[in-house]
């Protein structure tokens, strides 16, 4: 089909609007086949509930219409009235439901020179304030291709970053498309030959929804769709954003910039240059706030890095102390043994001394002093905590996220610049001739501006690369300090336990010595007690002996002495046997219990 009658195209467009619920499957005027459109429709059915919010939808419109003088006499009275309300000024409208949207889009018989549509969400991690039906009708009316959803799907109700900081660019222009793949709508001023693309960019912004940081920052996404009719010069901009930053910039540009007045948009090249100005405004958003965000991360990291690098840690190995802890012997004793002279027989004098003396153990008081010194040394490490290590880990994650965002943004900006350079240099079609001849300076300005943004992005990447290395080194140093502190604390506990064991050993040795002494005393007592008892018995008066006169000579009474010794020795032997048997039974019970 070489040319479709305007009536048939109008009928097709009206039927599509009536069946807008079938979008994106009913987007038949494209190179997409049925299976590709069905896949897009299936993805929509799966994701739309999380992307769009049916409660309290709100779409904002900003439009630049033709001036009254440039309207043809054939234009409707409603179109003339809309221009008369705001001559030379942008028109601001809102649509709160599907009826408002349909009424606004069909209220004028011809499309405005520039139409900007803002779709917002409460935050970058929330769904869009637009019902699925309203978005489908908007895409059907403006013949927006399903590829826009690759950018819009980044808006979802989620608690974490979605799509892992994805940024992308998708070109879907119809400049070289076959006639059956475009839809001419002469009644709306649309030729069907359009520069069409969508992209997704991310940048850092201050966030009011984050209350856990002193100066909260958040990586936020911006989805953009743009179409420019190269025959009529009419442009459409659609943005999806988690706040009103881009919407406010559009309002300022459309309201205050003289390049966007209706009388400055009379020709297609003028309108094309204006679209490049809007694009540069959006690219500027990618470069905003990065300096302050990086400075804040750097300040936080430098505080931790300086603290970790300037702390004094005494890590000299005290081998003498280690020897004493392991062997329990003073280093001086080993030195004294090495200097002890030997006898000619080969027996050291120290061995003789050792037989008559006890080995000197390290003083418990000395060990207590060492423990107090070690504890005092650890006081300087109290300023380091695991929470600070978590702060460094969070900074590391933020830097890695920022590097990824900047890298992907750099790629998208380069794709956009290459896209326009291709349009201006390689598209040899009649519709682009005037644009290519009259917009060279505007293209040069876009290329210069985009390269400046790319250079700034590369500078930010270099800053973050250096900061990333600093964070990694500081994190490793912090980890080493915390491990060293834990090791020293464990060592102090071990020394304290060993000191307690030494105390118990001293007590045990003393108890052993006292027990040995008691055994000796008991044994001696057992030997002398029977004799003492018998002697006392003989002297008690129970037995009477003939008295001796002082003048009589001393003589041994063998019979009495024999009786005394017989009874005493017998009783002593019996008592010792009883004691030995009792001691043996007691030790046997102790061994059995052990």
TrEMBL record:
Q: Which sequence ranges are marked TM in the entry?
A: 520-540, 560-586
Q: Which Pfam families match?
A: CorA-like
CorA-like transporter domain ranges (all copies): 15-308
Tree of life domain:
Eukaryota
Q: Which keywords does the record carry?
A: Membrane, Transmembrane, Transmembrane helix
What protein name is recorded for this chain?
CorA-like transporter domain-containing protein
Q: Which InterPro entries match?
A: CorA-like_dom
């Amino acid at each position: 089909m070489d040319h479709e009658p305007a009536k048939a195209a109008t009928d097709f467009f009206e039927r599509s609007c009536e069946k807008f619920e079938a979008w994106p499957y009913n987007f038949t005027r494209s190179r997409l086949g049925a299976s590709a459109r069905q896949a897009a429709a299936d993805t929509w059915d799966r994701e739309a509930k999380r992307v769009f919010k049916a409660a309290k939808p709100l779409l904002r419109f900003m439009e630049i219409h033709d001036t009254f003088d440039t309207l043809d006499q054939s234009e409707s009275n409603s179109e003339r009235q809309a221009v008369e309300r705001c001559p030379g000024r942008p028109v601001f409208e809102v649509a709160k439901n599907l009826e408002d949207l349909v009424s606004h889009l069909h209220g004028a018989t011809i499309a405005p020179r520039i139409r900007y549509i803002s779709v917002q969400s409460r935050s970058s991690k929330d769904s869009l304030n637009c019902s699925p039906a309203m978005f489908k009708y908007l895409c059907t009316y403006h013949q927006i291709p399903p590829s826009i959803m690759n950018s819009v799907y980044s808006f979802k109700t989620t608690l974490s970053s979605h799509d892992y900081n994805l940024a992308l660019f998708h070109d879907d222009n119809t400049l070289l498309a076959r006639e059956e793949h475009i839809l001419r709508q002469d009644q709306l001023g649309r030729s069907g030959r359009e520069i069409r693309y969508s992209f997704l960019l991310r940048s850092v912004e201050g966030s009011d929804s984050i209350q856990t940081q002193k100066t909260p920052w958040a990586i936020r996404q911006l989805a953009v769709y743009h179409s420019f009719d190269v025959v009529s010069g009419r442009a459409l901009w659609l943005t999806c954003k988690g706040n009103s930053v881009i919407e406010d910039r559009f309002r300022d540009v459309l309201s205050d910039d003289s390049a966007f007045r209706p009388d400055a948009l009379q020709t297609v090249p003028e309108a094309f240059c204006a679209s490049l100005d809007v694009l540069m405004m959006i690219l500027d958003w990618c470069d905003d706030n990065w300096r302050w965000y990086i400075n804040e991360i750097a300040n936080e990291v430098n505080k931790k890095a300086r603290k970790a690098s300037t702390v004094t840690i005494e890590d000299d190995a005290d081998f003498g102390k280690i020897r004493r802890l392991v062997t329990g012997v003073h280093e001086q004793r080993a030195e004294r043994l090495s200097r002890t002279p030997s006898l000619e027989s080969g027996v050291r004098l120290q061995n003789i001394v050792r037989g008559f003396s006890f080995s000197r153990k390290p003083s418990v008081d000395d060990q207590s002093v060492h423990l107090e010194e070690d504890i005092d040394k650890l006081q300087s490490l109290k300023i380091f905590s695991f929470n600070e290590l978590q702060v460094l880990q969070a900074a590391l994650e933020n830097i890695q996220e920022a590097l990824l965002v900047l890298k992907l943004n750099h790629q998208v900006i380069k794709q956009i610049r290459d896209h326009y350079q291709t349009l201006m240099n390689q598209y040899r079609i009649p519709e682009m001739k005037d644009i290519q001849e009259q917009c060279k300076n505007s293209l040069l300005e876009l290329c210069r501006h985009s390269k400046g943004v790319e250079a700034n992005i590369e500078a930010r990447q270099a800053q973050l690369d250096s900061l990333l290395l600093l964070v990694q080194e500081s994190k490793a140093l912090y980890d080493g300090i915390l491990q060293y502190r834990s090791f020293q604390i464990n060592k102090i506990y071990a020394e304290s336990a060993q000191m307690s064991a030494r105390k118990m050993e001293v007590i045990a040795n003393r108890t052993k010595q006292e027990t040995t002494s008691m055994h000796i005393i008991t044994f001696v007592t057992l030997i002398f007690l029977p004799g003492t008892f018998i002697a006392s018995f003989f002297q008690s008066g129970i037995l009477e002996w003939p008295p001796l006169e002082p003048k009589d000579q001393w003589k041994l009474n063998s019979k009495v002495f024999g009786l005394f010794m017989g009874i005493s020795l017998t009783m002593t032997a019996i008592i010792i046997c009883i004691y030995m048997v009792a001691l043996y039974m007691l030790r046997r019970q102790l061994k059995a219990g052990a």
